[in-house]
Design goal:
alpha+beta; binds flavin mononucleotide; Alpha-Beta Plaits; 33% helix
């Protein structure tokens, strides 16, 4: 019987500076367009995760098969809508933290504090903002 090799699940967290310029409504609309396209692409590629945007910065957690994640991250790094893409963490995971969301979104219009899996990410972003060393920069 031929056996399918198990795909290694990877989780990658990065932080970047937005290059989207203009009034808040325009930036929000651009991000919604980006999120909408990304959600469909992530679903097709078996990628799940979450995108955060606040104060001109993005943070994103992405998880999925290593090869698909590598391809996606190469495209993300080359995307002219942001710069200073900085990897905060890249790990092999045993289970998905976002099993049901190809790409959830938390933006500046959210009035409630971030919860769940977004909390450690926000804490890490705050550390980076204080200059407490990101790991790799692309
Ligand atoms: C902050 C940010 C997050 C993104 N997240 C995703 C994502 O989760 N999935 C995705 O397919 N594209 C995402 N993109 C878009 C990719 O950078 C890229 O435009 C898209 O994958 C198409 O790449 P291609 O033209 O090389 O095929 C993101 C872009 C930015 C700026």
């Amino acid at each position: 019987m031929p056996q399918t090799l198990p795909q290694t699940l990877h989780r990658l967290t990065y932080f970047s500076r937005s290059l989207l310029r203009g009034p808040a409504w325009f930036v929000e609309a651009e991000i919604e367009r980006l999120r909408h396209t990304s959600e469909a692409r992530n679903r097709a590629a078996g990628i799940t995760g979450s995108l955060l945007f606040n104060d001109g910065c993005f943070a994103q957690i992405l998880e999925g098969p290593a090869a698909a994640l590598d391809r996606l991250f190469a495209a993300i790094c080359a995307d002219p809508r942001h710069s200073h893409v900085t990897v905060l963490q890249e790990v092999t995971a045993t289970a998905r933290a976002f099993p049901d969301t190809p790409l959830s979104y938390i933006g500046p219009t959210l009035t409630l504090p971030p919860r769940g899996a977004a909390v450690p990410l926000f804490e890490r972003i705050e550390q980076v903002a204080r200059g407490e060393g990101p790991s790799i920069s692309r």
